Amino acid sequence: MKAGLLCAVLAMAQVPAPKDPAKELFEGVCSGCHTLERVKIQHRSKQEWRESTAAMIDQGAVLTPEETNMLLDYLVKNFGPENEQ
Ligand code: HEC
After folding, report:
1. Which residue owns the Cα nearest ligand 1 atom 25?
2. Does ligand 1 lie within 6 Å of residue 71's CB atom?
3. Which of 56, 68, 76 has most ligand 1 atoms within 8 Å of CB, for mutation?
4. pLDDT digits over 8-37, tens only?
5. What is the pLDDT of residue 10?
6. Distance from chain centroid for Cα 17
7. CA-based R_g, the chain, Å
8. pLDDT, tens digit, for every residue of 43-68?
9. Taking a C-beta distance cutoff of 8 angstroms, is the pair 23, 74 a contact?
10. Burial code of 57-80, b = ≥16 C-beta within 10 A, e = fewer?
11. Ligand 1 contact, 42 CB (< 6 A)
12. Spatial distance between the Cα atoms of 81 and 43, rounded to a whole number of angstroms
């Protein structure tokens, strides 16, 4: 019993370093219909990203409200207006 539990813990420890779930969402969901490049070249405010994300959901992107919020934070952090060059 104990050994089995230890194995399970060890198996979990072998999973690669925890990734950023927001990044996973972005890379998983937003690459579904077009390249991620298409998204990365944009620089938008949170409000603008909110609208874009809603538009993508209209197109068929599947995101729960929680995922949408997580993704919005990620988008603004990485592709927000302050990163504009
Ligand atoms: C169900 C399909 C689908 C998914 C999933 C999807 N998109 Fe899109 N996206 C489209 C379509 C269709 C277009 C329209 C333009 C085209 O590709 O010609 C587009 C265009 C865009 C554009 C450029 C047009 C614009 O708004 O200026 C951005 C930015 C964008 N998507 C962001 C995202 C993000 C962020 C995600 C992840 C949440 C995402 N997309 C996921 C279908 C999708």
Report:
1. 52
2. yes
3. 56
4. 666 666 666 678 899 999 999 999 999 999
5. 60
6. 16
7. 17
8. 999 999 999 999 999 999 999 999 99
9. yes
10. eeeebebeeebbebbbebbbeebb
11. yes
12. 5
